[in-house]
Amino acid sequence: MPTPDRTSLEEIVAAAWAVLEAEGLAGLTMQAVAVKVGVRAPSLYKRVRDRDALLALVAVAAVDEVARRLEPAATLADIAHAYRAFAHERPQGFRLIQSGGADPASLARASEPVLRIAGDLVGPGDALEAARLVTAWATGFLTMELAGAFRLGGDLDEAFEYGLARLTAALTPA
Amino acid sequence: MPTPDRTSLEEIVAAAWAVLEAEGLAGLTMQAVAVKVGVRAPSLYKRVRDRDALLALVAVAAVDEVARRLEPAATLADIAHAYRAFAHERPQGFRLIQSGGADPASLARASEPVLRIAGDLVGPGDALEAARLVTAWATGFLTMELAGAFRLGGDLDEAFEYGLARLTAALTPA
DNA sequence: ACCTGAACACCGTTCAAGT
DNA sequence: ACCTGAACACCGTTCAAGT
């Protein structure tokens, strides 16, 4: 007689992400995830190959949420602010994305709005490179902000707006 | 009778960094470092508090090497290229720096050349924010490049030069 | 078919005993 | 004073046995 499912892959991924944000990467143990979904650790292996695969699934979920948040953006400023809000609310998810392993389809979906807006500014020929300029800047700024790497004083909100303004100007045709 | 030292903190940090680059973060075990320096794992704890402290020391060593490489830079392009060369040669060290934990003194030394060159371009009032713009862009570009996050084709060397050219123009007074 | 206890391998860390 | 073997705790993972 088959037993009814006591959890699901989606629930496991959501639980893993919650544990990650609450306890950090080292605190994301199979045991902690199992407790959160109400099964024993070995049961997780029915739905996930191993811990690394679970981390990769959380990374995909994180990229998907970024894509969802960026979708309505109409300007570079919209993109930058939505991306920064995500990084502040889910810092561990943001860092996990940067560790690699997110799948190409999700990445493409997340980068679509930036490509569209960048293309409107600089034209199709430079759209990809302009999008990479903006994305790299925002990603680096947030990575450094979360890592506490900006230690020379100054207001970080202002520094973010400064970068955004300079990049927008640099990509706006005269 | 005291036994003669069979290793040193410097040797341990160098060995840990070498293991990190060769085997990745998960392969950086106390046992692997111990084998590399020719002692047993418990002996490492005479010189290092724990594995996290060892990782922090490797991060400091990595930031110090970045500082050393950036020191002779005279232009933003020099900085960008030296930083990228470091990231390509020691990708794990680069990623470790981004994880935080590098100490303020090393960070300040590494950021001095960028501050100086940015200040020459935009003046002292905007030097810090301009330096953060360039540093954030380069850090983000390299993070994404190493993570394999640029999957929409295009030449990455060209994308890097495009960003560098746009940023240099944006920070060069008319 | 999913779930579990038991077991195993591996790793970080401590410590008493050596020199 | 540094070094080591032995031991312990913790975690990822497997698997046979339950339902």
Can you give keywords for this protein?
homodimer; 174 residues; mainly alpha; 74% helix; 0% strand; elongated; DNA-binding
Verbal overview:
The structure is a homodimer of 174-residue chains. The first copy, chain A, is built from nine helices and no strands. The mean pLDDT of chain A is 96. By secondary structure, chain A is mostly helical. In chain A, helix 1 packs across helix 4 (51-70), helix 4 (51-70) runs parallel beside helix 7 and helix 5 (76-89) packs parallel to helix 8 (127-147). Chains A and B meet through helix 7, helix 8 and helix 9 of A and helix 7, helix 8 and helix 9 of B. Chain A binds a DNA duplex (19 and 19 nucleotides) through residues 1-6, 29-31, 39-43, 45-46, 50-51.
Mean pLDDT of chain A: 96
Low-confidence stretches of chain A: none
Rg over C-alpha atoms of chain A, rounded to the nearest angstrom: 19 Å
Give the overall shape of chain A.
elongated
Strand content of chain A: under 5%
SSE inventory with pairings:
The structure is a homodimer of 174-residue chains.
Chain A: H1 9-27, H2 30-37, H3 41-44, H4 51-70, H5 76-89, H6 91-98, H7 104-122, H8 127-147, H9 156-171
Helix pairs in contact in A: 1-2, 1-4, 4-6, 4-7, 5-6, 5-8, 7-8, 8-9
Chain A binds a DNA duplex (19 and 19 nucleotides) through helix 3.
Question: Could you write a compact summary of the structure shown?
Answer:
Chain A is 74% helix and 0% strand. Chain A has 9 helices and no strands.
